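G., before I forget:
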Amino acid sequence: MKKTQLTPHMPAVCHAVSARSARVAHLLVGCAAAFLLCALLLAPTATVFAQHKFSKTYPARRNVRLQLNNRSGEIDVVGWDRDEIKITADMEAPAARFTPVLKEDGLWIDVMSDTRGREDVGDVNFRIQVPYGSTVDLETRRGNITVHNIQGAMVRAVVFSGGDINLTGIRVNRVMASNISGNILFDADLMRGGMYELTSTQGDINLRINAGSGFNLTATAPRTRSINLGDFAGKGSWDFQSNNRRVVGTVGDGSATLNTTNWRGSIVFVSR
Amino acid sequence: MDCEKCSDLLGDFLDGTMTGDDRALLSTHLDECLGCACARDEIRSIVTAAAESREHFVAPPNERALWLRVRNTLEAELGAQQRAVAMNSSVGNVRENFLSHLMNKRWALSLPQLTAAVVAIVVGVAVITTVGVQRLTGNEGGKSLETARGVRNLNPEQRVAFEYLMQRVEERKSRWHPRMREAFDHNLGIIDATVSDSLKELNESPHDEISEEALNAALRDKMELLREFSEL
């Protein structure tokens, strides 16, 4: 067995080897610390990403009321043939919070920030499926609202600033829709004794109404004077008032009341 | 000598200035007439008493000041009596008295005073008219016609609410998402344009119902927009 001989250089070599080992050890410890730090930082982020989508189904009566108060984003409500409400939401910002509250008279959704305040929380886009017979009451500061296939007691859609409102396949007694800018599409069967109010400040209002409907109409478009009665022009008796800025008249038995106002845009009727 | 002649000469007799036959005749009459003798005795006693008390009725050092005090006292008492009468009379009577006093007063103005008064009245009327017209037409302080008319349609509470909400929005706006800021500004502009259009129409046709409706609706929308966005 060869015996190692110690030379005068050996202590320096040993010292160099131990120094390299120490650097490697330090490097490993540093990597481990960095990994732990990344893990700690990424853990809540992963949770946040998990909160960006929301999906939940609630049992509901056929004539349930849905009340939604959004800040910004799209709202899409569709009637379906189930006694359930299904809410799907995409949240743009992690600060957005909402907890649907199921009460005896309906489901209430109020979007707010994670500090429980009403600060701007970015877009929250809702798609909600409700029983056909639901009452739907929707509000948002900004964004489009679509309601389709609802046959309950009331549909109310309000955009406090700009956004389109599309109400299609509607058979309810009371409709209120209003926005400042953006178009309104109202495709509905007017019910006997029903009240319908559509108001926009600027944007076009298009109404597709069953040709056999009977209603009293007051349509006002003072800025453009653009009120196109379509086929209904020949079906009713009309009084064009204030230099054609307002049209008042009755179609059929006049059993429903339809008031539509567009202060700076046009109003167009289409019979179907 | 009779009694009448005696009473005329009695003063001279007591003063001792009467001499001669007259004094003898008067003395004879006084001896015979008891009434004139009594009168002589009374006058003599008064004169004697006055002469004896002369030093007790020395004139005051400032006689004029005394009379002024007396007059002031009398005027104060007279004024109190007049005030008491005025208190008992009605307000209308008081006004009537004041007006009658004013009307009955004689005004004497010199030509420069009269000219200055006329100029002051003309300037005052001009200033009041200018301010009134500016308020009516809304040009006061450089404000636009539309703004003034818009403010006319607001009650003070609404105006305060507008200012408060606008201030709140401006404070918070920087924290909003750019999309939200754009939506707010764009739609506020639309509402303001509607207000402006309505006011122009109302300026031309003050009784136009549709323009009035449009104005009220726009102001209502503006309030709603501000209220909703002030919470963000």
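The first helix of chain A runs from residue 10 to 51. The longest strand of chain A covers residues 65-72.

More on Monday.
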